[in-house]
Design brief:
Four copies of one chain form a homotetramer. Chain A is of the alpha+beta class. Chain A has helices at 7-26, 37-41, 65-85, 90-119, 215-223, 235-244, 281-290, 298-308, 311-316, and strands at residues 165-168, 171-175, 199-203, 206-209, 252-255, 258-263, 266-269, 344-350, 376-379, 396-398, 407-408. In chain A, strands 10-9-8-11 form a four-stranded mixed beta sheet. A three-stranded antiparallel beta sheet of chain A has the order 5-6-7, with no helix packed on it. In chain A, strands 1-4 form a two-stranded antiparallel sheet.
Chain lengths: 413, 413, 413, 413
C-alpha cells in the first residue's frame, strides 16, 4: 500500500525533521549525519530538494534499523545541546515544539502502518500479545436500534434505545483558534496553523448521535446489502467499492462463518459493541445515508465539542495512553460520549483553509496548506493518538478512500 | 481522454434521457426505440441497470450518426405527443423542463468535446471557419499590472492600472434558492436541486478582481517559472504538473517562437488581452497564490453577483448565443465585469451539499448529489453556455484537474 | 483493443505506403498530398520520422473517410503514371509489387479489425448479411474422437475415427526460398524477405493431424475444465487466462444456454463441425497438451506442405475469394485436408531469422526483421487471406496472446 | 523490481522445496514446520495450491530472518534423517539432487537480487568490501578494434586486433543430452530435463568471437548513439529503450564526467577491459547488429563448447568459487576464451522444447517446460554461478528485457 512506510522510515524521518529544520538552520557549521539522508527521509518538502520516491521507501534495506537508531541518537544529542544554547530563542523553541507534535503524528502513523503491514501478512502476526481486550459484553448495547431510513427518530432517544441524539442550537458561532494569541513555543498551548484563524460560521440547528456507530450496527448495513447498492454511495465511493472489491471494513475477515477483525493484538472475534473502525470516508457517508442520517460538518463537531467537553474528558478518552490500541465500547449513560479518542470521526467537510489562513513562510509552510484539496476532515483523535496532541480545534485530514487510519462514524442529522 | 464522449453519443444520450424518464415512465406501453440503447446511452444512472463502460464510448461505430438522428426524431415525435397528452401534469412537466436543462448542459459538453477531439488531432481541424474573432487590440489592457506577490495593492485600483478590486462588506448573508418556491415545471424559473436550500452563511469582508485574468497576465506566470516552482501549487496539483508535463494551459502551443491557442475556429495567435481559458483548478489556484491573491469562495461569488447583476447582464454576457465560442477581452470601464459568460470561474469551494439538501427520489436523484466529492465549484457560465441556462445561484462542478471545460480565473483577496 | 485500427486508417495507410516509398522517392519533385499524412498514417517505420501513436489512431475524426478516398484516388492516379514512366526499372517494380502484397495484408487486417469492432459493440452489428453459411450437418464429424491424453493413438486412424494423422519421415530437408532466384519485381513469384534463404534443417519423423481441430473438439476441452487447470498451460498463457478471464475462444458467447459465435455475418449458433477459430497461441498450445499432442513446428508444416500440396489446392482453399469470411468444416475423405485457408495454423516455432537472413536496406528493412521476437509463426492462410498472397513458405507471425486473427489448431505428434 | 525477491525469501524457498517435495511426500506423517509457509514460499508451482503474490514478497516483515533460519535448520535436520532412511531409493535421491541444483540456482539469484537491491538504494551500499578487483590495465585490449558495420572483417583476425573469430564447420551435429543415460540421482552427472533429449541439428558454417564484448567496445556503441538509433533494435527492444529510458547497461552511472559501475563490491570506475555485463537480450542484439555481426544460436554455442572445452576449463572459469562476483577481462592469448563463467552469453535462440522433450509428471514438471515462451536462451554460466552447476548443455533462460542477471555478449557471424 503506497501510503504505508516501513517503521524504520518513521524513526529516521522524525529525526530528519529535527536535523533539517533545527540543526541545519540554527547550528552554524552543523554537518549532516549522512549526506544522503536528506534524500532518503524527506517526506514531501519540495523546497528541500529531491527526495526518494514514496512508493520505493519499502525497498531500502540500508540504512539498517541499527544505523537509524545511531542517527536518532546523534540527532537527539545535538538537539539537547541546541535546546540549551538557544534557550529563549522563540523561533527555535517554536520549531522544537512543532517537531515534537510532528513526532506525535508519526507515532500514530507508525501504529497505523505496523497494523497494515501485519494485517496484510498471511501469517497475521501479533504486534502486542499483552494488550487488554475490552469486554465483549456491553449490556447497554444489547439492542442496537439505529434509526431506520426515513423514520423520524426523536432527538431525545427513549430509554430502551441505545443510540440517542443530542440537539444543538444553531446561530452564528466561532470556531478555530486565534493563533496569534497562542504560546506556539510551548508544548502545551501549541496548535497547527490550519486550526486558525478563529472565525465566525453560521450553523443551522443540528443533532449529533450520542455515541459512535458500532460494529453491530455496521454489520446490519453489510447484511442489508449496503455494499451492493449504489444508491447509498457517492459516485467515487461506489467506483472504489467496485474496483477494490470492498465488502466490509478493512481488517474484517470471515473465518469459519464468523467475522474476525485484525487488531494490534492479533485476530479477534468481531465485537458488535465496539465502534466500527477502519472504514473510509465513503463507507462512513454511505452508512449514514443508508441510516437516513448524515455525517456532521467539522463546524458542528467543533461547536458541540466546545460546549460539551471539559478538561477531564481529554484525560479519560481512549487515547494511546490507555494502551488498548483499539476502540472500546461506549460507556453506559447518556449524553455525548466518545467524542474524544477511540476513532477519528469522519466529517462531511472538505479540508480547506479557514478564512484568512496563511501558511508559514519557507519549507515549514508545506506542512498543512498544500494538502487542502480532495481530503475530508476528521475530528477527535483515536486510540492511537496521544492525548496531549489533541484539541477540540484539531483538524486531521485524509482522502475519502483512506481506510488504514483508525477512522469511524458519528451520525448527525 | 476518458472524459470526452463522441458527439453522436451526446446526440443519443439526451434523447435517451427523454425516452427513459418521460416516455418509459409516463407513456403506458411505450416500447423503447431499440432494446440495447439503454445500455449504450445511459451515462451514469446506476439505478437504471448496466451500461456501456464510459471509456469505450468512442469505440461504437454502430449505431451510426444516421441511426441516432432517426432515434432523436422518433423520441422527439413521441415527446411532442406526450407533452400534449400530459398537459397540466406537473410531475411530467417538471421532468420535461429538467430534460431541457439537461440537454443544454450537453450542448456545452458537445462543444467542449468537439474542441478536444479536434485539438488533439495533428491536423488541428477547424470546427467553424466563420466565427468572429475578438479584436486583438484591447487598449485598456495594454499595460497589465497585476498586483505582485507581497505587494499591498489598493482595493480601489488607480486609474492607470487595468486590474482593480471591488470591495464587499461581509456579514451574515443568504445564498442559494428556496426550491420549494420555484416553478420547477416551467423552463424559466427552474433551478437544479443542488442550488438549494436558501441558507445563511457568514462572510468576512472580501474583494473580487473587477475582471478575469488575461492570457497576458498568465503568460507572466509561465515566464516567471510558475510551472517549475512547487511552492505555488497544491500537492496534488504539483503531482499533475509533473505527471502530465503541464507547462501552459491546455490548447496552448508554441510554433515558430510564438504562442498559439487552438479554438473552435482553428489555431489563432494567442491574444494577451483575452481571458485565460482551459486552465485547471490547480492552475487557477497556483496562479492566484503566485499573484499573492486567492480564488473566491462560491458564497463570495454569489453574494457579489446577487448585489451587482441585473437582468441586462444576462443578455449581454458572452454566452453561446453570441456565437464567438471563445472568451473575449474585458470591456473597458470600471466595476465588476465578465461575471457572466466568457469562462467558468474556478472557486476554492469544494462541491458539497447546502445545509438541508436532499436529492430527489429515484434515478433522477443521481443527477447531482452523488458527485459531491473531490470536485470544485465553478460559477458564471462560459462562451459555450446558453444564457437561459445560467443563474447567479448556478453551481457547476469539475474535478480540480479538469482542463477541457472553458474554465478561467477571477482573483479575490 | 490497441492492435485494432479504424478501417479508414487502413485505407489511408496502404496509399501512404505507395506515396512514401514510390512517389516520394522515385518521382522527382513530388509533393505529398497533405503535409501531415506521413505523421498520421506511418504505421511503424522509425526511419521515416515521428508518427501518430498507435493507441490514438481511433481518435482521429479528421481526415474523414471522404478525405481519405480523395487521397487514395490521388495516389492511385500518380502511381498509374509512375508505373508507365518507370517501366523496366526493376527497383521501382519490386517496390510496386511489395506495395501490392502489403495491401493484401491490410485487406486481411481490415476484415480482422472490422470483425473486432463489430463484435465488441453491444449491438453485434452484421458486416455482411449476404454471406453463405457452411452447412451445419457434417456427417463425418458426428463422432469426434480425439486421441485422449496418454493414449497412444495409432498414426493411421481407424475408419470410424474422424481425426487421423498423416506420417512423415524425418531427415535433412530444405525449407525456405532462394530469394535471389525469385522474380521479386513480378506479382507472381514474389516472396517476403523473411521466407529466405533456403536452408537445411533436420527433422525427426513426425505426424500431422489430417484436418483442423473443430469447435466440437474444442468444446470438450472447455467442458473438461481446460480453462481452469493450469497444468495444460504455458506460464504466460495461464497468466493471460487469469488476467483476461478467458473461458472460451474470442467471439464465443453463451445466450440462453447455447454457444454462439460472432462472425462477419453476425451472431450464429456455434457449429461443432467447423474449425475452431480465434484462439490464441496459448490456447492452441494448451489444447494440444490436454489432447496429449503438440503443435507442429514451422519446418514440419512446410515440409508436409511441400510434399502434399499441388497448385489446385491453392485454388480450392477457403480463402477470401470464396467469400465465406469464415472457416468451413473439413471436407470428407482422407489425407491432409485444410492445410490452406480456413484458419492460420499456430506453430510452436518462435518467429526468428533463417540462417543467413538479411533485412533489406533502408526503411523497407523494417518490414519484417525487427519483429523477430516474442512472436509465434502461423502458416497456411485463412478465410480472410487472398489466395494469390499465400505460399507454402509464407510465414505469418503474431504474439502468442493474439486472438483477433483467424487462428486455429492443427495437432502434431 | 517485480522479479527481485528479498534475500530471506530465497532462504526460505529453497527449504520449502525440500520440505514440500521430499519431506511432505516421502516422510509419512511429516507435519509442516508452519501451516502457512507453503502459501508464503511457493514460487510458482500451480499444482501445489495458492501462493503469495510475487510482487508482494517484499512486504512480508514476518517470518523474520531469525524465523527463517529456524525453519532451514528444522528442514535440514529432517532431510539429514530422510537421506539416511531412504538410502538407495532412487526416486528420493533424484529429488534430493534436484533440490541441490535448485538451491544452486537460488544462490545465484540471491546474488543478483542483493545486487539489485543495493544498487537501487541511493546510498549504494557495499555488499562485500573485501572482494578482489581485477586489474584495470589489460594491455592486450588497449586497442579495441571491433569489426565496423559493413566491413568484412576476416575470420582470422590480424595480430594487432584484439577481437578475433574462431571458425567452425557446419553440418549435421548432435546437441543436448540423453537424459535416460544419466545418473540423475547423483549430484555429478545430473542435468535438467530441458537439456534433453540429445538430437540432431543442421548447422551452417559459423564463427564465434574469441572473447566477450568489453565495456570499452560497448561504450563505443553508446557514444555512437546506439541508444538513440532505432535501426539497430528489435521493435520490442526499441519500445523498452523509450519506455525505460535506457541509455547504458544497468548499474552504469555517470558521476563527475566518468562512468561508474555498481558491483557487489560497491561503485567502481568502469573498466573498459572487462566484459560488458547487465545488458538485456535486446541490447546484446542491438550491439551485434550495430557491429555488423549477430548473436550465436544456442546450437552453435553448444557445438563450439563441445569441441573446445576440456574439464580444466570448468575449473578455471570465473565462477562464483573465484569469489570475484564480477566478470574479469579476457586472458591474453588466442583461441576461444571466456566461454565459461564471467557472464551468461545471450543467444538469439528462443527457449523451446527439444524434439521429443517431455516434462516430468506432477508438480516437478512445472520446473522448466511451462516457461518455454517469450524467453531467450543464455549459455555458459557467470561469475555468480557455481562451477559444479554448469554444463556445456546447460540452458539458462530469461525474457529478452531482463538486465539484472549477469548477462553479456559474444558475437557470432
Amino acid at each position: 500500500m503506497a501510503d504505508v512506510s516501513p517503521p524504520k522510515w518513521h524513526l529516521a524521518h522524525v529525526s530528519w525533521f529535527f536535523e533539517t529544520f533545527l540543526l541545519g538552520k540554527h547550528w552554524p557549521g552543523y554537518r549532516p549525519f549522512h549526506p544522503d539522508y536528506n534524500y532518503c527521509f524527506n517526506s514531501y518538502y519540495e523546497a528541500l530538494g529531491d527526495r526518494h520516491p514514496r512508493p520505493q521507501r519499502g525497498l531500502l534495506s540500508r540504512p539498517t534499523v541499527r544505523d537509524i537508531y545511531a542517527y536518532r541518537q546523534a540527532v537527539d544529542e545535538a538537539m539537547a545541546q541546541l535546546i540549551v544554547q538557544e534557550q529563549g530563542n522563540a523561533a527555535v523553541e517554536a520549531l522544537v515544539v512543532l517537531g515534537l507534535h510532528h513526532e506525535q503524528q508519526h507515532q500514530e502513523l507508525l501504529l497505523m502502518d505496523i497494523k497494515h503491514i501485519l494485517a496484510t501478512n498471511p501469517l497475521r502476526p501479533v504486534y502486542r500479545a499483552d494488550l487488554a481486550v475490552p469486554d465483549l459484553a456491553a449490556p447497554d448495547l444489547a439492542a442496537p436500534d439505529l434509526a431506520a431510513p426515513g423514520s423520524a427518530a426523536p432527538s431525545a432517544a427513549p430509554a430502551h434505545s441505545s443510540l440517542g441524539y443530542q440537539s444543538f442550537s444553531g446561530g452564528l458561532v466561532e470556531i478555530g483558534l486565534d493563533l496569534g494569541a497562542l504560546p506556539l513555543d510551548q508544548f502545551e498551548g501549541f496548535a497547527f496553523d490550519n486550526e486558525g484563524p478563529r472565525h465566525r460560521v453560521y450553523l443551522e440547528d443540528f443533532s449529533l448521535a450520542d455515541r459512535l456507530v458500532t460494529n453491530g450496527e455496521y454489520l446490519e448495513f453489510i447484511e442489508a446489502g449496503g455494499y451492493r447498492q449504489p444508491q447509498h454511495w457517492l459516485a467515487e465511493g461506489w467506483a472504489k467499492v467496485q474496483q477494490q472489491g470492498w465488502s466490509a471494513p478493512l481488517y474484517w475477515e470471515q473465518r469459519q462463518g464468523s467475522w474476525w477483525v485484525m487488531t494490534l493484538g492479533g485476530l479477534r472475534v468481531m465485537n458488535p459493541a465496539e465502534p466500527v473502525c477502519h472504514v473510509s470516508g465513503y463507507e462512513a457517508d454511505a452508512f449514514a445515508r443508508w441510516a437516513g442520517q448524515r455525517l456532521p460538518t467539522e463546524a458542528e463537531w467543533e461547536r458541540a465539542a466546545s460546549i460539551s467537553l471539559g478538561p477531564a474528558d481529554f484525560q479519560q478518552g481512549n487515547f494511546v495512553e490507555q494502551d488498548l490500541l483499539h476502540p472500546r465500547p461506549a460507556p453506559g449513560g447518556t449524553g455525548l460520549r466518545q467524542l474524544l479518542g477511540d476513532v477519528w470521526e469522519w466529517t462531511q467537510s472538505s479540508y480547506g483553509p479557514y478564512p484568512g489562513y496563511r501558511p508559514a513562510a519557507g519549507a515549514i509552510g508545506e506542512y498543512n496548506g498544500k494538502f487542502m484539496c480532495n481530503q475530508l476532515v476528521l475530528r477527535g483523535g483515536s486510540c492511537a493518538t496521544a492525548h496531549s496532541h489533541i484539541r477540540s480545534s484539531y483538524r486531521n485530514f485524509f482522502p475519502p478512500e483512506a481506510r488504514w487510519l483508525f477512522g469511524g462514524i458519528r451520525l448527525a442529522r
